[in-house]
Amino acid sequence: MKNSIPLSLTAIMLATSLCLAGRANATNYDLPLELVTTFDGATVKLYSLSNTNVAGQLFSVTRLDFLLSDFALRQDNGTWVERTNWQAYVSLGEDRTRAQVKDLPEGGYDRVRFHVGLRKDLNHSDPAQYAPNHPLNANLNGLHWGWAGGYVFFAWEGRWQTSDGVSKGYSFHLGSDSMLMTVEVPVRVVIGRDPSLRLVLEMKRLFEGQPLLQFTDDNTSTHSRDKDVFAARLRTQVESAFRVARGGPATEVAQRDDGRPKPIIAPGATPYRFKFARQFPPPPLPRDNPLSNEGVELGRRLFNESCLSVNGKQSCASCHQAEAMFTDAGKAFSVGAEGQAGTRNAMPLFNLAWKRSFFWDGRAPTLRDQVLMPIQNPVEMHESLTNVVTRLAASEEYPGLFERAFAGHEITADRVARALEQFLLTLVSYDSKFDRAMQGREQLTAEESYGFELFNTEYDPRRGFFGADCFHCHGGPFFTNHGFANNGLDAEPRDRGLAEVTGRDWDEGRFSVPSLRNVAITGPYMHDGRFATLEEVIEHYATGVKRTATLDPNLAKHPDGGVPLSAADRKALVAFLKTLTDRQYAPVESLTSAAAPAQKHR
User: Fold this and answer.
1) What is the DSSP letter of 486?
2) FRET partner for 9 with CA separation of 20 to 30 A, picked from 67, 95, 250, 398?
3) Domain architecture of the chain: domains with CATH
């Protein structure tokens, strides 16, 4: 409502009888959209190698993400009602299958039109300008080409099975201005009466047409390069694969409530000025835990406080040292307060404000959940939260520090977590040689530049590209997609990874994809610290990748073993990776001898 005049009972009943979703005025209504993906009429299930295309090939879908824009409806009188500032991000894997078109005039409509992709002005807009929940926020959708610029309009990845039963990967990414797709289909909808519209992508249609689209070793990837005939064919197939129908009862589109308590902050607390790079999109900082100077300082003290452990011998900083970019100074496994060794490598702590889950296996959905887990873990700090709170409350300094941050002398586990969360959110890394070079304040060497080119070029010999293909998982300003992947470390995973949390077979051996920022000083590498140097890591991706049922499609599409790289290529890649070191955290000696810490402790 736009005023304070009470609605009559008759008006309320009338609005209810119209089954409207969203707000309404005399003539305009909001139209919910339901986005459905099917194969031969059945809802597509992720990771299931059970779909059979028209060529008789079995395949699965592990990713289906795309961008929609410029929604329009044609009225019965032939006039188009357009919403040219409308965009939606659709993700089958993240269950983002609902959108909404606002303020449509009531009446009958007979056609729907929209783009799959973005107009040129939007495609080349600055991705850092969009709010955390905006469909074009690159950290939300993972559909930006990164340093190359522009968005991926349609990302379709998965596995396919050859005639002799070998499982391989495919990765189809349609983008660039020439790949903008337009869908226009008939529909019969009455705005003001019909509760919603259902947009259906029928994947079986992607394989139809002549010649039939099918999986072959020559058709396992596309990146919409110029004169890519396969990309042009797939573009046409996508345009013809949509249909639109009236939907069922509308579900209100609203922000999910995470159930957390309201913000707790002391009246006199000073707001913290959160700084980040211009190329970073705005982070989704926790609204119920606003950053303050007092809260951040309290978190810093708690991070370095050994009384959080069972015997007062260990703090968070013991295994996350600032001089090693908050890792455990080259150790494969950290040792807990009582001398027990862990089973996974201590992850670096920076740019956490943009992460969506925490730990190698993603078992903590928020940073606030994560910070309390090591305290209680019997292999790590092995202390109860009750004892921690009692100990802090009995100290001379902490009651006052908590009061200045959160108001009141009360110390609780929740407030401990909030303070630690605030401190860790402030650890932002964006000032490396690479960043300064992108800003024109420094210059990469010829070898470093070549390494950057290799890093951001796909390996697709059939189309004349021989890059290292690193950017699919480690692209963009964060040098990570913030996802999970099986990178072929073992034929039989020693550690189930994400599957240990989800219980799903298709998550076997999948681990969090780490950022490559500061990678030169955060070794050893992988979840189990098996590689001591960057050279060993690159050797793995060139010759050591193992084919498994859950191997990431962007690796499974490559030859057995990985991407062939020459000695010069490998050397250039290492040179480029060393340019990602942030001087504000790294000691001077680490900038020139990056592998030394990892070697020293092995």
Assistant:
1) B
2) 250
3) 9-246 (no CATH), 293-320+339-355+363-425 (1.10.760.10), 433-600 (1.10.760.10)
